[in-house]
UniProtKB/TrEMBL annotation:
This is 1-aminocyclopropane-1-carboxylate deaminase. The modification N6-(pyridoxal phosphate)lysine is found at K44. Keywords: Pyridoxal phosphate. It holds the Pfam family PALP.
């Protein structure tokens, strides 16, 4: 690993604050990863840390990665690339977006130097296929490839650092949002058998369970997709109303893709009496994807 890059990552990380809120008879402590850094925040900080060290160590000049139009990973990668002297290229799902004005996430990434290649949804589904990856390596030989959402073995290694020793000592139930499965996999790997890890999915379907099973053999975890509002980046009036009410009461910012669904799910399970008296919730950031409708 390239220790200089790791040191740079650690230097930009601020002390991570905690904020405890009381909802009914449950103390919900939120670990504010969103406050690590203004741009490389949340779980993305931990996912990118060792990937950028590897890219530097192997002598790459740029980083190439994948994402949708609202991808927190795309935004964080663009900023980190400029900060550490890399070029960046985003393979973006949806060729029709090329003719549309950029949304807030893509605008942010582009302002920090990321170039885009917009491809069809059909092509995008090939992003993990060997032939597709090999063609990208041929076309962009100076670019280090980071998977969608940043999820690979190095990302999981980084995400094992999300929980501190005191977190593991003080809490038995730990909750986080789930997109590609990397963050929760790292959290699971850092936990002991007596911990329960609950992942609130931003997407519909049980495929994420299979994804996480590729990265861990532990059994003390569960993926919950009851609060995904129909799928990735989909919202409902109930979700928007919840976020507005939550922020007004607790002054903790959320967004509609991940953290809003996470907290809405937790509150509903508390209402059902299905939660212990205290839990730790990982706020995974991603606030640059926050919609103007909130």
């Amino acid at each position: 690993m390239h220790l200089e890059t790791e040191k740079q990552f650690n230097e930009i990380a601020q002390s991570i604050p905690y904020q405890t809120i009381q909802y009914k008879d449950v103390a919900i402590t939120i670990k504010r990863l969103d406050q690590i850094h203004p741009a490389i925040s949340g779980n993305k900080f931990f996912k990118l840390k060792y990937n950028f060290s590897q890219a530097k160590n192997l002598g790459y000049k740029g980083v190439l990665t994948f994402g949708g139009a609202f991808s927190n990973h795309i935004a964080a990668t663009a900023f980190a690339a400029q900060l550490f002297g890399f070029k960046s290229l985003g393979i973006i799902r949806g060729e029709e977006l090329q003719s549309h004005p950029y949304n807030a996430t893509l605008t942010f990434a582009h302002e920090y130097g990321m170039q885009f290649s917009f491809i069809s949804r059909e092509q995008y589904r090939q992003k993990n296929q060997v032939d597709f990856i090999e063609q990208l390596k041929t076309n962009y030989p100076d670019y280090y490839l980071i998977p969608e959402g940043g999820t690979n073995d190095l990302a999981i290694l980084g995400c094992q650092e999300i929980l501190s020793p005191s977190d593991l000592q003080d809490y038995q139930t730990i909750c986080c949002a789930v997109g590609t499965g990397g963050t929760i996999s790292g959290i699971i790997e850092s936990c002991q058998p007596h911990h329960q890890v609950l992942g609130f999915s931003a997407l519909k379907g049980d495929f994420l369970t299979r994804e996480v099973q590729q990265f861990t053999s532990k059994k003390n975890w569960k993926i919950i997709d009851d609060y995904c509002c129909g799928g990735y980046a989909k919202v409902t009036a109930e979700l928007i109303n919840f976020i507005r009410s939550f922020e007004q009461k607790y002054q903790i910012p959320l967004e509609q893709i991940y953290t809003g669904k996470l907290l809405m799910g937790i509150f509903d399970l508390v209402d059902q009496g299905k939660f212990p008296s205290k839990v730790l919730v990982i706020h995974s950031g991603g606030l640059q994807g926050r919609s103007s409708i909130i």
